[in-house]
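Hey, quick one: can you model this chain's 3D structure?
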Amino acid sequence: MMKGMIIKNMSFKVGQTLTIVGAPKSDASDFAVNIGPNDQDITFHMNPRFNAHGDENVVVCNSYEGGSWCEESREGGFPFNQGEEFKITIEFTPTEFHVTLSDGSSIHFPNRMGAEKYSFISFDGDARIRSVDIK
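Sure thing. Here's the predicted structure for all 135 residues.
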C-alpha cells in the first residue's frame, strides 16, 4: 500500500511531539503523512490536497483499519504552497493527535485505535521530507 518514505520499528508515544519539515513539489497534487502500528493499519492519515481526489486546497484526515477507510475529517487551514517549505507539528495525547500547521492553524484528530505507542510512520505523494524529529 505504501510507496513513499517509510520509518518503521521506531517509537512515537503518548506525550511526544513529532515535527516534520518538508516541501511539496512545484507541481504537487497532494501528499500524505501516515502514523500507525504497521503498514496495514493507519491511525492517523493527514492528506493535504492541492488538487486531488476532487478536492482543492484542503487537508483531509482519516484512519485506515481492517482494509477500509473510516470517516474523513476536514478542519484547519491550508498553509501549504507548492514548492515552499512547510512545518507540521503533531502532539500525541492519549485521546488525539493535535496538529499545528505552518500558519498556526490546528487540527484535532481522535486517536481512534487507542494505542499509547505507534511504531510506523510513512510519507507518500508529491513532497520531499527534509527532517523528522520526535521529542
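One thing worth noting: The first strand starts at residue 5 and ends at 13.
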